[in-house]
Amino acid sequence: MLERSVRHGIASCQLLCTLGGERGLSLAQLLRNTGITPTQLADPSSEIEAAQELALIRNLVTELGDPPGLGLAAGARYHLTTMGIWGFVLVSSTTLRSALRAGLGYLDLTYSFSNIWLEELDEQASLVIEVDAAPASLRRFLVERDMAAILTLNHEVLSAPLTAHHITFAFPQPPHSERYRAALKVQPQFDAARNVLTLDAQLLDRPLPQANTQIREACEVQCRALLARRRVRAGIAGRVRDRLLREPRNMPDMEAIAAELCMTSRHLRRLLDDEGTSFRALADEVRQALAEQLLRSPRIKLDEIAERLGYAERASFIQAFKRWKGVTPRAFRSV
After folding, report:
1. Which of 77, 195, 200, 203 is the most buried (most CB within 10 A)?
2. pLDDT band at 326 (very low <50, low <70, confident <90, very high)
3. Cα separation, 89 vs 188, whole angstroms
């Protein structure tokens, strides 16, 4: 089961439904078993569970027969204006490096179901996309969508054409792979170890044309508020999350919390699954939220943060934080 648990805005579903409609699918086909109503879809202020968007993606991919390149066509439609306040943080950043760090730091405000992080080596900068937690039948679409969206968004942030040095996909080479070169402006390598988009590292320090420190800071405040609101939980997930928040240094396991709630761990697992989450996702959610809060205080050392969150050593905390946010705690703190 996918562990991404933050709620999504409706804009992505609107784009996907438009794409499906252009390819002959009805709204009923696309919204089947998603719990999304046409009224919600038409309301730009609507928010849905991430699992609902994933169900819509499953309908889109299944009804169209999972054609290669469908995700590329979808990803090219995601513009800065689609991304809400997250997009304003990117475009008002001082450099592309700053924009990427902020964007990855608030990745939960996007429509991605991937873990994405930045790696720098010699004169190359690589964005790595990992979708191992997603259903296997949807991974190609999700990777394609993220790859195309990254290129589109960075092109708009730079206000200049952007071409990758090279792109690798971990999935096998599909039929009609020439459409990938046409869409990505570079011939990708398939059957690679990882999904990676590599750029010239010199681009990272290029000043951005719409940089504005005051706007960037104001937008980050809104990002934090929006993320906190979307993480608020009700139902049994809310009760579990509240219980985990009481003792972040020594979190009880699922069996202990289930006993407190007078139920078996198996029943608790089923209830959480019905609400689109899991015990592990909630534990990660709590630790991630607390880690972000603690990292904003420059006086608290990483060792102390790791200890407060129940990690035996700093390295384990750093590894977990990178999995959550795509950047190291030090990089997150420096944004």
Report:
1. 195
2. confident
3. 30
| Domains of the chain in sequence order | 1-65 (no CATH), 68-213 (no CATH), 233-334 (1.10.10.60)
Please report, as a single letter, which amino acid is at residue 52: Q
Percent of the chain with pLDDT over 70: 97
- For the chain, the residue count is 335
pLDDT tens digits for range 104-154:
989 989 999 998 999 988 889 999 999 988 899 999 999 999 999 999 999
Quick one: which of 333, 331, 325 has its CA closest to 106? Answer: 325
Greatest Cα pair distance, the chain, in angstroms, is: 59
Q: How far apart are CA 258 and CA 77, in angstroms?
A: 44
H or E element in which residue 118 lies: strand 115-121
pLDDT at 2 over 50: no
**CA–CA distance from 234 to each of 34, 64, 190, 237, 264 (Å)?**
20, 35, 43, 6, 20
Closest to 61 measured CA to CA, from 52, 70, 72: 70
CA distances for 281 relative to 137, 254, 270, 287, angstroms: 21, 12, 14, 10
Q: How far apart are the first and last CA of the chain?
A: 32
